[in-house]
Amino acid sequence: MTLSLTSALKPSPALSVSYLERRRLFFILMTLPAVIYVLVIGVWPLAQGIWFSLYEYNLLKPARTHFVGLGNYIDLLSDPVTRGAFVNTVIFTVGAVTVELLLGFAIALALWRDDRFNRICLALILIPVTITPLVVGLIFRALLADYGLIGYYLAEFGLSDPRGLFANPSSALATLIFVDIWEWTPLVALILLAGLKALPGDILEASEVDGATALQRLRIIVIPLMLPSILLALTLRTIDAFRIFDSVYVTTGGGPGNATNTLMLHAVKQGLEFFNIGRASAISNLTLICIAVIAAGFILLIRKADRKANGR
Question: Which residues pair with 56 in a beta bridge?
């Protein structure tokens, strides 16, 4: 009797197959809007940009559009303005990310202990991250210009150009790096603080009992175990800094001259000011290739550091 009742309650193979098919169809339908969104917003513009970069295409001269293959890319390699924009982008990225990592790690160590005061400090220092880079650029342009609250006194004491820090070719890029550091150091500190709080407490306590100093614990235990978090912060900030555009656009516009011209700003100028869509697409694609190489390198380092931290 029990066996027959169990047999009756057991779903038939046909019913199980039908349920699996309906379940699979349900998940496909649920993910379909996201797939369409990625294709329309991401893949299609990328494919169109690659296509445009193979043509000499200027919106002011549409009749002269013709296929040039890799000609736009070859011209960029010999263009001094593009090379200067690449150098500025690298200097900006290396300078900003290096300082952000060091300051962020120091802040994370200072806020490592979980108490009310540190939680309040963490909430306060995260305020710059909540402001969009465009607004941050406008704020610092107003503060550091010749008429700004800070820029006026810096000029009065002879610490900056009378026209402001952004108007001097020797200080404009360094000032932009400072602005980026002010805004994004808290994010790096938050990532590193999460890595610190995930460290095994028993290892740290054992090292303290063994008589290891704070510096020894930091060098031998903390930093090696935090390598995945450090590399994650480096990856996110390097990619974001390499494609810097908005804060540069509203503060200096790439000037004075080309002192603060970056790759993304150079691409926007070529496309929206000179209407040279082919060259603008080539610059954007070169920037994308650089970012992809950076991301791939950091991902490999993160995986290697994670395996080493887990003893694999």
Answer: 66
pTM of the model as a whole: 0.86
Strand partners for 67: 55
Mean pLDDT by 10 residues, the chain (312 residues): 50 61 86 90 90 91 88 91 94 96 94 87 90 92 84 82 84 94 94 89 77 81 86 92 93 90 94 92 92 88 74 60
Q: In the numeric block, which tokens belong to residue 88?
A: 């500025």
Q: Which of 22, 81, 72 is nearest to 51 (CA)?
A: 72
Give me the amino acid identity at 206: A
Q: Which amino acid does the sequence have at 132? A: T
Cβ contact 172:178 at 8 Å: no
Q: Name the one residue in this structure whose structure tokens are 């990310």.
A: 97
Segment holding 67, helix H or strand E = strand 66-67
Instruction: Report the alpha-carbon distance of residue 164 to residue 88 in Å, rounded.
Output: 20
Q: Which residue stretches of the chain are H helix?
A: 2-9, 13-38, 44-52, 71-77, 80-110, 116-125, 133-144, 149-156, 172-197, 201-209, 214-217, 223-225, 227-242, 246-251, 263-268, 277-309
Give the Cα separation of 290 and 279 in Å (integer).
Answer: 17
**HSE, side-chain direction, 13 A CA sphere, residue 277:** 17
Q: Which residues of 45-75 are buried (b: 16+ CB within 10 A; e: fewer)?
A: eeeebeebbbbbbbeeeeeeeeebeebbbee
The DSSP 8-state label assigned to residue 129 in this structure reads G
Burial class of residue 143 (count of CB atoms within 10 Å of its CB; 0-12, 13-18, 19+): middle
Q: Is 19 helix (H, G, I), strand (E, B) or coil?
A: helix
Q: Integer distance in angstroms from the first to the last C-alpha of the chain?
A: 54
Q: How far is CA 285 from CA 280, 281, 289, in A?
A: 9, 6, 6
Q: What is the CA radius of gyration of the chain?
A: 27
Distance CA 118, CA 112 (A): 8
Q: Which residue has the tokens 């009756």?
A: 8
